[in-house]
């Protein structure tokens, strides 16, 4: 599975990098960014889902490909 | 630093009160509310004592309340409506974000009096970009050791006492000290900030002249601070210096943008975090089960504080309607206010399971306490750090506490809600 952030929607709330620091980081202005290529290991899947469900802007997508 | 003629002092003529004189004033209407659906007022004691009961009722039967007070205002209560207004920067303006009986002149947009919170696109993006870097999670983490030490010193000062006012003697001081430090203002000026905050956010129904005078006092203070920085031989490493030197579109910022942004950082950072810290302590004093669990499981605190932010979201913003519009069943007129109640959105059962319950291990919590869309609270990372440290230190030092006198607790009126008197028994 893979996570992506839609930069048009992200407002830098930072919930993703708070809740799933293994998958997300922040840029110099606090906007979320996906670490690496966004591939989610099976062990990180729960964290990824929690990040998706807590993003106030619904800017994170978790998709099957990858 | 050097002479900077942007900030030269021009004496104000009596009666000449800045740009505010050009706006429009509406009639001040006070007194008990007849029907919350058609005559709401967030300044009345019934609202400050318990706004949630009123909002829950309106959400079911209304759900967009109206009032003739303040020259006309609307109050959407559902999450989806609050979100839609927050995202609709085409049809609603942030020209003034504190609902009052004064509407600033239209040409104050798109900058507004305290950019970027009061700004509309496209200026908003550029002004906000100047400040974002100073308020990232990494950047505010630099304030954490001093914040922790300061929280400890406040609790040290309680030695020997059985009852303390946690709002006045703890919660309030923390954000004042942190923001004074970040702006490079004298730490002992804290009590003056408290007065500024009250004047701006709670003095809504004061006569215009008196309100103008109080606003002028804030800007005089900020100008004094700018001059204190300019008079220094060495530039300081703080936000005031940063704003004095910052450039937008290849030029240094106009002086009113510098002082407006300083006003925003000073005012917006104090009442809000003060309220969040106080409301969380109030909840824990009143819910021994939650308090004991957090003392036993400090690792749960980051999750719990999101729930406190959801359930007791301190901040309601205001917007102004740009042009007449038929919106979700109501007719909004140009220049009507809209109260953007994030607290009400956060308790909408259509958005949250068991919305009216505080569940400190709530794992899925897509709350809107820091707003939605382009005006997401610039200081949200700072606020979360302050709240986490304030609660962590309190719970470690004072694991057992109760409400000393539930009837004595007082909550603020207006758009920022939190306990202003909170006597806790700690001994």
Report what the structure shows.
The complex is a heterodimer of chains A (66) and B (427). Chain A has 2 helices and 4 strands, in the order βαββαβ. Chain A has 66 residues and is α+β, with helices and mostly antiparallel strands. Chain A has one domain (2-63): Alpha-Beta Plaits (2-Layer Sandwich), CATH 3.30.70. In chain A, the strands form 2 sheets. Chain A has a two-stranded antiparallel ribbon with strand order 1-4. Chain A is globular and about 30 Å long. The termini of chain A are close together. The mean pLDDT of chain A is 96. The model of chain B has no long low-confidence stretch (mean pLDDT 93). Chain B starts with 23 loop residues before the first strand and ends with a strand. Chain B has a single domain (5-425), classed as Cytochrome p450, CATH 1.10.630.10. In chain B, helix 6 (144-156) packs parallel to helix 16, helix 11 runs antiparallel to helix 12 (255-286) and helix 12 (255-286) packs parallel to helix 16. In chain B, 47% of the residues are buried. Chain B has helices spanning 45-49, 51-61, 79-87, 123-132, 137-141, 144-156, 166-171, 173-183, 190-202, 208-231, 239-245, 255-286, 288-296, 301-311, 342-345, 380-397; strands spanning 24-25, 64-67, 73-76, 92-93, 102-103, 163-165, 247-248, 251-252, 316-321, 325-327, 330-332, 337-341, 402-403, 410-411, 419-421, 423-425. The longest helix of chain B is centred in the middle third of the chain and has 32 residues, at 255-286. Chain B has 427 residues and is α+β, with helices and mostly antiparallel strands. Chain A binds chain B through residues 11-14, 17-18, 26, 28-30, 50, 53-58, and chain B through 129, 132-133, 135-138, 302, 306, 363-368, 370, 372-374, 376, 380-381.
């Amino acid at each position: 599975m893979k996570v992506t952030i839609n930069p048009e929607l992200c407002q830098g709330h930072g919930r993703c990098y708070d809740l799933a620091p293994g998958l997300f980081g922040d840029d110099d202005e606090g906007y979320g960014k996906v670490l690496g290529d966004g591939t989610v290991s099976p062990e990180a899947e729960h964290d990824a889902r929690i990040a998706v469900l807590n993003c106030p802007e619904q800017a994170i997508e978790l998709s099957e490909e990858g | 630093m050097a002479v900077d003629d942007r900030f030269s002092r021009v004496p104000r003529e009596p009666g000449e009160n800045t740009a505010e004189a050009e706006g429009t004033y509406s009639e001040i209407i006070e007194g008990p509310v007849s029907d919350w659906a058609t005559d709401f007022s967030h300044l009345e004691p019934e609202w400050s004592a318990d706004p949630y009961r009123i909002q829950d009722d309106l959400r079911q039967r209304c759900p967009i309340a109206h009032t003739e007070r303040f020259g006309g205002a609307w109050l959407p209560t559902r999450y989806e409506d609050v979100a839609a207004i927050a995202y609709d920067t085409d049809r609603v303006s942030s020209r003034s974000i504190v609902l009052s009986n004064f509407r600033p002149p239209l040409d104050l947009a798109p900058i507004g009096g305290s950019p970027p919170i009061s700004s509309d696109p496209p200026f908003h993006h550029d002004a906000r970009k100047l400040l974002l870097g100073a308020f990232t999670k990494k950047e505010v983490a630099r304030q954490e050791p001093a914040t922790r030490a300061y929280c400890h010193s406040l609790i040290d000062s309680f030695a020997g006492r059985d009852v303390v006012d946690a709002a006045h003697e703890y919660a309030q001081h923390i954000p004042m000290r942190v923001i004074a430090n970040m702006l490079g203002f004298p730490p002992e000026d804290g009590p003056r900030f408290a007065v500024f905050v009250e004047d701006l956010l709670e003095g809504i129904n004061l006569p215009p002249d008196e309100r103008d005078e109080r606003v002028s006092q804030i800007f005089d203070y900020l100008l004094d601070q700018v001059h204190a920085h300019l008079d220094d031989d060495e530039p300081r490493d703080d936000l005031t210096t940063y704003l004095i030197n910052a450039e937008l579109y290849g030029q240094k910022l106009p002086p009113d943008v510098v002082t407006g942004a300083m006003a925003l950082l000073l005012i917006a950072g104090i009442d809000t975090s003060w309220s969040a810290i106080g409301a969380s302590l109030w909840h824990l004093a009143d819910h021994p089960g939650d308090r004991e669990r957090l003392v036993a499981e400090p690792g749960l605190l980051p999750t719990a504080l999101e729930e406190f932010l959801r359930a007791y979201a301190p901040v309601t913003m205001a917007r102004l309607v740009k042009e007449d519009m038929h919106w979700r069943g109501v007719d909004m007129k140009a220049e009507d206010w809209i109260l953007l109640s994030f607290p009400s959105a956060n308790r909408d059962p259509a958005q949250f399971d068991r919305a009216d319950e505080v569940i400190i291990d709530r794992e899925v919590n897509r709350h809107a306490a820091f707003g939605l869309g382009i005006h997401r609270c610039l200081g949200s990372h700072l606020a979360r750090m302050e709240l986490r440290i304030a609660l962590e230190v309190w719970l470690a030092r004072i694991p057992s506490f109760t409400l000393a006198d539930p009837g004595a607790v007082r909550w603020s009126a207006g758009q920022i809600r939190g306990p202003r008197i909170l006597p806790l028994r700690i001994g």
